[in-house]
Amino acid sequence: MKDRSFITKCLTGCATLGVVSLMALSASPLQAEIEEIDVREVTIPVMIRKDFNPVLGMNVKLDQAETEISFAMKVGGVNPQFIEEIAVYKAVIDDKSGAVRDNVDPKPEALLGAIAGSDVRKGRAMIKCEEVDLQEGDNHLWVSVKLKPEAPIERFVELEVTDAKTPTTKRFRLDDAASKQRIGVAITYPSFPVKVQKTESRKVLEERVSKFSRIPGMVVTKKGTIVATFDNRYHHNGDLPADIDVAVSTSRDGGQTWSDVITCINARDLPGIGHGVGDPAILLDESNNRIWIAGLAAPKTGHPIWKSELGSADPSNCGQFVLTYSDDEGVTWSDPINITADVKRLDDPDTKEWGCLFQGPGNGICMRDGTLVFPGQIWGAKHMGVLVYSKDNGKTWTSSKAMEFGGSESTVAELSNGDLMLNTREGAGGLRQVGVTDDLGETWEKHDSVKSKKGQLRQPVCQAIMVSLFNEAGKYNLGTSARHVMFFSNPNAGNRSKMTLKYSRDNGDSWSDGLLYDQRGCMGYSAIYPIDKNYLGVFYEGQHGYLYFIKVPYREIIEAR
């Protein structure tokens, strides 16, 4: 993101061809002159199913109050037939700084002018609005684009503000005030509908409204179906214990459209346990196309999971590790399977200080030898990383020894030599903890990046996700000859903002600086998975109950360095 100030001279002549002109009219025009325009370039995808999508910010500085202003814009990229509306909004200003905060989710205060996409003809259109309230000095504005559901998510929205004008000011030209934003889909949004199902019968028990959603996970089946999982948080955005179910939504067209949200694990299927179930992780068994989802069921007593009893699997005082699976592309799901006693290994003295053991969250993996692995975390006397795995396609499950130098939420990837890397959130913040194992977690060693503190990944005390791609026979269009590449996603900042994709070609010894894909403040969790030969899918949290999906070309991530 860059800030540019454009102090421009008056220009004469007619409007530039191939532009959209946004005008605001008033019965009593004032005599304001534009003194300066600061343009804020942003990285914010334009989301289908969302009304306000800021693509460019401006601070228009006037020498006195004004009620009329116009902007000329070039519109490109996606065909205008897929644009519902282009609008200019007055921006919400931070009370303390008196400016727009770029590290939070931008919000509009008032609509100043708008134009329907159908009125954009050959790049030219006009809109008129009344009663525009612009003040002397700073006027922070957003240009927003609303898309139709059919807008192709592989395309971009391109928009450039070329000119600005008040009634008494001749046209002011702006140079290089352009924006190019990728297109995505809001899979969930505040107060979205949910079909709560009894798992195997598929009987809809009731239709509910979930105020919030969180904790994304995602896989793509061998038939190309994208299966996204997440928490339905019905009443508030808080964690377990609460009224929370694990849900899924699927896409059969590469992420363009999504099915209704249904539950796959709900508290009603957990008699004697249920005080909410959530924090899902998902994996695909490559050998049989079975999808597995793991969830954490809160203790029956309702007390927080960090108070789970050490060395116990009793559902009255310990969080429960539960699984469900689907053999039909995520349409129906099995009854929950409780594997808490199996993975806590109660007869093993090594586990006597293990309190709550649960999944990632986010994604698990199917190793090349067929082993199914969920990354896990142990909350007990201290926080530690762990693996939960099955070597018989999910018939039985067990756990590894603890990675004692690990933190809490974890993500796992297979390295080029078959070793596993566990990358964990660290409660102290700053940098992530990383361990490697060549024996499914019987022994652990700190990764070289942790030992040397070179190449360690930044974190703001938040979940992260990584995935390995084995590029045999040119399976993926990576734009590199590397046969093994890792991708990583998290907030690349000191707070939960600046969602970024990084890659590594050396088994995580070093990472690229990264490709910023959304700068806004957010809840920070994400899931990534290869969608097809060309695209990495990114399923991530926004704010206020939104979960977003975008597709990013592998080449773009790698070329970003």
Automatic annotation (TrEMBL):
GO process terms (BP): ganglioside catabolic process; oligosaccharide catabolic process
Pfam family, one: BNR_assoc_N
SUPFAM superfamilies assigned: Sialidases
One GO term describing the cellular component: membrane
GO molecular function, one term: exo-alpha-sialidase activity
Boundaries of every Sialidase N-terminal domain copy: 36-165
Sialidase domain: residues covered: 216-510
UniProt catalytic activity: Hydrolysis of alpha-(2->3)-, alpha-(2->6)-, alpha-(2->8)- glycosidic linkages of terminal sialic acid residues in oligosaccharides, glycoproteins, glycolipids, colominic acid and synthetic substrates
Top-level taxon in the UniProt lineage: Bacteria
The enzyme's E.C. designation: 3.2.1.18
Entry similarity comment: Belongs to the glycosyl hydrolase 33 family.
Protein name as catalogued: exo-alpha-sialidase
